[in-house]
Amino acid sequence: MDFEQADALNQAIRLLSLRHRARAAALLAPLGLHPGQEALLLELARTGPAIQSQLSEALGCEPPSVTLMTRKLEAGGHIRRRPAPSDRRASIVELTDSGRALADQVKHLWCALAEETVAGLPAETVAELPGILTTLTGNVDTRRSRRLQGDSAV
Amino acid sequence: MDFEQADALNQAIRLLSLRHRARAAALLAPLGLHPGQEALLLELARTGPAIQSQLSEALGCEPPSVTLMTRKLEAGGHIRRRPAPSDRRASIVELTDSGRALADQVKHLWCALAEETVAGLPAETVAELPGILTTLTGNVDTRRSRRLQGDSAV
DNA sequence: ACAGATCAGTTATGCGCATAACTATTATCC
DNA sequence: GGATAATAGTTATGCGCATAACTGATCTGT
């Protein structure tokens, strides 16, 4: 691949990151959320209570980030933490009623954002887009390869 | 669009952002660069000396970010700043010899990253990917709409 | 020609996410 | 069963990028 094409692709990904995040921030701000927090709420809404290491895995971010996210959402009254009965190291995180209501609002925003994002693209392209993006992500996912290395090393 | 699809898309964009940036960071680290700085070097390599507001526009980030980026790259000896002769407010930013050499290295990394990113995708998909991503970016670009509003208001 | 608006750039501050280093608990293996 | 390794989580710190508020220079309109 020549540099022109490579740069077009890398730059496009970089700009999409910045703009999509900025747009998400603008939409989430009225709910009192910052981007990143919505992912935690949606994950809890999807799978129910979870410990932080599971959230870290699901959200694709590191444990210290989860610590901060949970702390802020807890301060906002949207989630609750309680000790895990079977493991005194772990905390179980779950939605409060307020958090569930907030998650529902986020879902609507999320649909609006997705529709806004793919406006003007043929339906066929839109349909295959998540798969393409997931492939790209997998190709550069040092987290996954790190974990596989760890697994195989055992 | 239902929530499942919307979430798949938004989540895919979010994860791609995190992972692509992380991978870029890993590749750039040996050169002593942090992600974001490479874009400035490449822009200067592409278009020659420019003032910071042009860089801000080209990189899609805000002026304070450019201030910090230029300061760090200047401290590293990769760029140089001199006052613009025709406008005493502006600084002209340009590559040093070291910066030009570094930009060439970055170009190679950039090609490698792009190839790694699109591995396993059909060539046809790869060819239209930059266009698709640019469309997505345009759809959520609050910067552009902000600027257009400003223009039309005059 | 001069007052007011616009523009280039900086400083201060805040958020998200990362890594490194640490504590406390649990699992493993001789 | 007791040393050792692995795991859950936290704190400290640093980077990128954002907004808000500011200074100084340039442009505009009357």
TrEMBL record, chains A, B:
Gene Ontology MF annotations: DNA binding; DNA-binding transcription factor activity
Keyword DNA-binding tagged: yes
A Pfam family this chain is assigned to: MarR
A single BP term in Gene Ontology: response to stress
Keyword S-adenosyl-L-methionine recorded: no
Domain HTH marR-type: 6-138
Lineage top rank: taxon: Bacteria
SMART domains, per database record: HTH_MARR
Keywords of the record: DNA-binding, Transcription, Transcription regulation
InterPro entries with a match to the protein in the record: HTH_MarR-typ, MarR/SlyA-like, WH-like_DNA-bd_sf, WH_DNA-bd_sf
Official protein name in the record: DNA-binding transcriptional regulator, MarR family
